């Protein structure tokens, strides 16, 4: 009887651990939301064979986009657990800083929320001996508009209204334009505090592309990494913007969905002209990204996104982060590790992690081409 009771208790404890692990897996990330109290990350362990370590060795430095940081943190944890003696160090800064570091030859790859510009490609030829920098789409996801308005749990906005808020034209939450989009919702006269990224950011550029394509005269600015509009307050990184929105009543800001999920920040539902406003979710972002076309040539797989889609359930304020690498002329000492690590991130297991953590996988057809290019790097 004692032995039977001991086995029952052991089975009960094991069941509790399985449930606990499943619950942790559903949590989405902020700068450190993938950490538990003992500093260990909680991510789905990759299946045997998903990570191939052949030739990988030493330390691989990378830097860039903070938009993909939460995904990269999970990838790095899994990869380093599988590949003994290999260290991957990704510095989350900004897309602009990542590309500068890449073109200075100080990192094996860079993360960027927007594709390389012609002048950046030209500059990369100095580092990529006999080749050039190329864009490999790796992480997709929604740019959420997080808000903090006391007493308001649900908020619908359209492109023109978002533009007028961030362009400092709409200054109070009970403005008629907002009320019209939210019938039955009691909106306070609280002043709007809008926050944007203080440094060059691909997230800023992608929001700008959406507003430029959809908001008409309400957004007269060209899309750029530097915030273009007057007013508002700047904060560093997606985590910095999310923290300000979380703390300030009347606030609104933009950041990747994982940052909103981690801090419990409410997000705007987008009125796109579809039958119903669309929520910012990984699944809904995937519906928008699925319509993307490859705009790059040769080994470059830069994508052209459709920000004007009105498809049901498609959330069009999306970004795709690219891993920027040399097609030829990669450093021999880091090339095997770059190929090994990126092959894992582009694998089925690596892409599955994205949807589980508030991001959106790259469409399968495009991802297959990404893997082909990774294997051809030299």
TrEMBL record:
Family matches, as Pfam families: PBP_like_2 (PF12849)
Gene3D superfamilies, alphabetized: Periplasmic binding protein-like II
InterPro entries linked: ABC_phos-bd_PstS (IPR005673), PBP_domain (IPR024370), Phosphate-bind_PstS (IPR050962)
Record keywords: Phosphate transport, Signal, Transport
SUPFAM superfamilies, alphabetized: Periplasmic binding protein-like II
Signal peptide: 1-27
Residue ranges constituting the PBP domain according to the UniProt record: 56-348
Family: Belongs to the PstS family.
Name recorded for this polypeptide: Phosphate-binding protein
Species of provenance: Streptomyces erythrochromogenes
Lineage: Bacteria, Bacillati, Actinomycetota, Actinomycetes, Kitasatosporales
